[in-house]
Design a protein that fits this description.
Layout: H1 15-24, H2 34-47, E1 51-57, E2 61-68, E3 75-77, H3 83-86, E4 93-95, H4 109-113, E5 118-125, E6 131-139, H5 147-173, H6 175-201, H7 210-232
Antiparallel strand pairs: 1-2, 1-6, 2-3, 4-5, 5-6
Length: 238
């Protein structure tokens, strides 16, 4: 991944606008929903890491909308989470070994106490260009992340962002429509997860091979197209 340049502060200059965008989607502090749980499960499988999270970064707190691998973790103070740094970026950031390199703006004690050693996170960028959270993967052993894996993580984050957009539109129209859309998207994600388990199982190394990545991206194309169709329909679902 590209080298990380630490910002001066965890609070960006456009923070009021960023928070308005976050609150507009009315997803903060909501209960778990299957589609987001499936996204983090897929990410953990693809990267062969034990932990994946979808975070939403509020003024003082990072809330985890979906959590694979850290049961019971719902939220942490903003200053304790690397997602607070990742949400500031346009591209993914990575820390291959948190004992060797870390963000000095984030309290390292939480990660150390949990035995976390590597982190990669991509921003959830919404239609107005502002970031409201992250899609991240985390491991308990040091691990590098390739450029191709960076692109894959960013793609997953983009799909999550579009799903949040779809959720807001459909809940404003009909909760039943959102439930139906979730079921459709879940079917694609479950197919991708089945394929991921097979492909990752036959991969000897830590990193995803090029042919595996190409196959995964083709599967993600189906989710992308489904989201596009649902977002483009007149009432959000047809």
């Amino acid at each position: 991944m590209p080298s990380y340049t630490q910002p001066a502060s965890l609070v960006p200059a456009h923070e009021p606008a960023r928070l308005r965008t976050l609150y507009r989607y009315e997803i903060l502090n909501t209960t778990p929903e299957p589609i987001f749980d499936d996204f983090v499960a897929l990410a953990a499988q693809l990267f062969k890491l034990p932990i994946s999270l979808i975070s939403l970064v509020d003024q003082d707190t990072v809330f985890f909308k979906a959590n694979a691998g850290l049961p019971g973790l719902v939220a942490v103070p903003r200053a304790d989470s690397l997602c607070s740094a990742a949400v500031l970026e346009h591209t993914p950031i990575a820390f291959p070994d948190l004992q060797q390199e870390r963000c000095d703006l984030v309290n390292p004690a939480v990660a150390e106490a949990a035995g976390l050693r590597c982190y990669a996170g991509a921003p959830l960028r919404m239609t107005d260009g502002l970031n409201i959270g992250t899609m991240c993967v985390i491991g308990r052993e040091p691990r590098d992340f390739t450029e191709a894996e960076s692109a894959l993580l960013l793609r997953l984050a983009e799909l999550v962002s579009r799903t949040i957009e779809l959720r807001a539109r459909l809940l404003g129209f009909s909760p039943d429509a959102w439930e139906q859309a979730q079921r459709e998207l879940q079917a694609y994600l479950h197919e991708s997860s089945t394929l991921a388990r097979y492909l990752v199982a036959r991969t000897d190394g830590t990193f995803l091979a090029d042919d595996v990545l190409q196959t995964v991206h083709r599967r993600l194309d189906f989710i992308d197209k489904a989201l596009g169709r649902l977002l483009a329909s007149e009432d959000g679902y047809s």
